[in-house]
């Protein structure tokens, strides 16, 4: 078992007017939170996250428990941000990174969201423990730019993952075994963005932890100090009850901003009338820099509170589709037609075909009339559809089709019968006219398969007149 000797420091830097960073260090936890959002209260966001860390400071018993608990801290901090934003829309846009670890005496349980960083100094070698959730890091990963180019990239401040009151985030979680003599550091990009890795390693190697922090902060200021600087360091030492009993240390915005209670913001009509627990952020001293701060995590920030509008559009589309289906179903329910079903004349209710994969008709009655018993003209008619005005009309049509089929069968049988001896061959004479319910006047031309070939008239049986021609196609008895 080991203990931690820890120290923490946070400062405004040389450009900013207020500190939007926060941090927490204790025998069990080391965390840095870098707020963002400019006038949208980045200081409040970082304070919420670091304060939640302090409230949850208890020694875990295992590595799995550490990861579970630090993930819970992040979730609760994010939920608190959600509540604050829901009560005051002016806070929409604030967010914070979260980078730190829980310590159980044997291991570190790392958790990381954003572009704050964790480093491990072990046996004189410096290792970056975290992977930036940033735009330039994504470009590096894709091989489009080098780390050296990323350091001066115009969009190096844009981050892709952040705690901002939304639910679409997943922290990076990892367990690391601790070794005696390890030094672990978490810092905001006010340090890592201004001090090179070789200089970080050199200054972090200083034996005195407080001197190391002071020299690191001074190096960041020397190189511009254009952002807040927060550093939290822990040294792994032999187990020490006195070290294990030391109280935690909050730094940065967590010591300067009082977090409003739930419901407190909604009771005020505006910032001017609000409880002084939450002060109005000061005007930025560098407007151009503040604009980049506001847009710092723009690529990752999804529009908020658009779900009601999206749901309304989806509901409207569903209503239109549902209404159309209902109207179509109602209309189809009033329609009937006669058609072929597996070689037999059949009555259908509905409309021919399908819509959105749904059959628009149902079988009502399947007769025993074989389509092949009909003359060729009527075979084609039934092979398409015969539209009728109702069920009675459909039944009347099938009755007449039955008569035509029976006559056609009789004609075939007569043709096959041997002629009588010394008698002239009997040839059936087709009737000059025939009527057929539901069929249009014949033209002698072939009927296109699948086309509606019939019209309906009033009355219980829809009757259309067919005037056969001399051709076999139009002859009702051309069997």
From TrEMBL:
Keywords per UniProt: Membrane, Transmembrane, Transmembrane helix
UniProt KW Membrane keyword: yes
Entry coiled-coil feature ranges: none
Source organism, top-level taxon: Bacteria
UniProt biased composition (Low complexity): 418-437
Keyword Transcription: no
PPM-type phosphatase domain sequence ranges: 5-236
Region span, Disordered: 261-292, 415-479
Transmembrane segments: 307-328
Protein name: Serine/threonine-protein phosphatase
Organism: Tessaracoccus defluvii
Organism lineage: Bacteria, Bacillati, Actinomycetota, Actinomycetes, Propionibacteriales
